[in-house]
């Protein structure tokens, strides 16, 4: 009995620690202090090493394609209902690994040659229907204004006054519906209609060169991004014409949906947690905003996604560090960050469901309405979670055709 009691105390303590709020006071350290703590070699971008990871990911992607196109049609039809979804998940996951390298290319974290980084990033992201330069520029703004209520570019939290989120959808069924829509549609809707983005005057879209997201010096490259998407879509059309729409969906379309879901899944978890604050312009500063993100453990997916999942905090602090050095850099700065560093080892699916339930909208604490600091809230806190926080300052048709292939 005694041992069980101590175990329960340990579990409770661990849960309290995970939900303990990150400090909101100005940091006692500067970014220069963090850079000094990181071994110098972590800042070096090796073209050979970066190319190795890119070529490895492409080889994995090609292997999945070869196996699917040559051997799945030989599998007995009933088993295809298992084999095709397995391929979609594996191939979509490999897509996400390649896309993550494209993300590094946009940060100039691949090589010492910016022209090479942009060329490769443009090709890779266009292949996955992502407007490279458009995302590069909006993502740069996201890094410059992380967790700013007014100026951050993505995952802008809702306010309690938005009753669609705080009341109508704030229930298990509403959360489930929003989760499905979010995972399936948020990726293309973000680029097309700026869903989850900050409000702008005028039509904000990553495909619209005159969008207020961009400044005048960037607009020509937005046209180039659009040209890349048009070329990719035309290539896909030619492939579908030479094969069939169902074949293209099975080989490319369904894995792309999985990739989109991965992207939304882990970026949502990067910036949604009961312990991290958002700030308005009265209180926001860059370093506290950059520290208002979470490192999590995705198991083997950490490696597949090039540690963007478990070393995201350091990425927000110094985004030009190559992915193969971010884990080492994180270990180097953790002693300096102290309580300002947040790591959550909650099993990832459990954490995702918790955050979809509890991170509905943000409001200041009661009695601190003018503090400029906002915390995630839910009108449906479970008693256990609430006390912890208070204690711690038409694809269906295409799918059927796949199984017949």
From TrEMBL:
Oxidoreductase among keywords: yes
Lineage: superkingdom: Eukaryota
GO molecular function: oxidoreductase activity
Domain Fatty acid desaturase: start-end pairs: 83-342
Annotated localization: Membrane
UniProt record, GO biological process: lipid metabolic process
Keywords on record: Oxidoreductase
InterPro entries: FA_desaturase_dom (IPR005804), Fatty_acid_desaturase (IPR012171)
This protein's GO CC annotations: membrane
Broad class of where this protein is predominantly found: membrane
Keyword Ribosomal protein belongs to the record: no
Entry's family note: Belongs to the fatty acid desaturase type 1 family.
Name used for this protein in its record: Fatty acid desaturase domain-containing protein
């Amino acid at each position: 009995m005694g041992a069980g009691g101590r175990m329960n105390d340990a579990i409770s303590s661990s849960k309290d620690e995970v939900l303990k709020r990150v400090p909101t006071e100005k940091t006692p350290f500067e970014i220069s202090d963090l850079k000094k703590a990181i071994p110098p070699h972590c800042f070096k971008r090796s073209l050979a090493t970066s190319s190795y990871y890119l070529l490895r990911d492409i080889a994995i992607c090609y292997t999945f394609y070869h196996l699917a196109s040559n051997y799945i049609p030989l599998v007995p039809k009933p088993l295809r209902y298992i084999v095709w979804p397995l391929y979609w998940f594996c191939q979509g996951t490999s897509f996400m690994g390649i896309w993550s390298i494209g993300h590094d290319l946009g940060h100039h974290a691949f090589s010492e040659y910016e022209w090479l980084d942009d060329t490769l990033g443009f090709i890779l992201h266009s292949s996955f229907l992502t407007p490279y330069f458009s995302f590069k520029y909006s993502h740069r703004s996201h890094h410059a204004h992380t967790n700013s209520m007014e100026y951050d570019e993505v995952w802008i939290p809702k306010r309690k006054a938005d009753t669609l989120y705080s009341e109508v959808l704030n229930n298990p069924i509403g959360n489930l519906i929003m989760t499905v829509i979010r995972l399936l549609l948020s990726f293309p809707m973000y680029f097309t209609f700026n869903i989850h983005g900050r409000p702008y005057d005028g039509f904000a879209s990553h495909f619209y060169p005159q969008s207020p997201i961009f400044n005048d010096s960037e607009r020509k490259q937005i046209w180039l991004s659009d040209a890349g998407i048009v070329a990719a879509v035309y290539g896909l059309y030619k492939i579908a014409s030479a094969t069939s729409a169902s074949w293209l969906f099975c080989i490319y379309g369904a894995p792309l949906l999985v990739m989109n879901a991965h992207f939304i899944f882990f970026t949502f978890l990067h910036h949604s947690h009961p312990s991290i604050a958002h700030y308005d312009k009265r209180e926001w500063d860059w370093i506290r905003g950059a520290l208002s993100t979470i490192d999590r453990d995705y198991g083997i997916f950490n490696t597949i996604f090039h540690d963007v999942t478990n070393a995201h905090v350091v990425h927000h602090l110094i985004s030009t560090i190559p992915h193969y050095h971010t884990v080492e850099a994180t270990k180097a700065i953790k002693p300096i960050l102290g309580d300002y560093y947040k790591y959550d080892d909650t099993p990832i699916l459990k954490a995702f469901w918790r955050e979809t339930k509890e991170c509905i909208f943000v409001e200041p604490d009661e009695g601190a309405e003018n503090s400029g600091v906002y915390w995630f809230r839910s009108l449906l806190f479970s008693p256990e979670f609430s006390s912890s926080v208070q204690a711690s300052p038409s694809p269906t048709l295409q799918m059927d055709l796949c199984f017949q292939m």
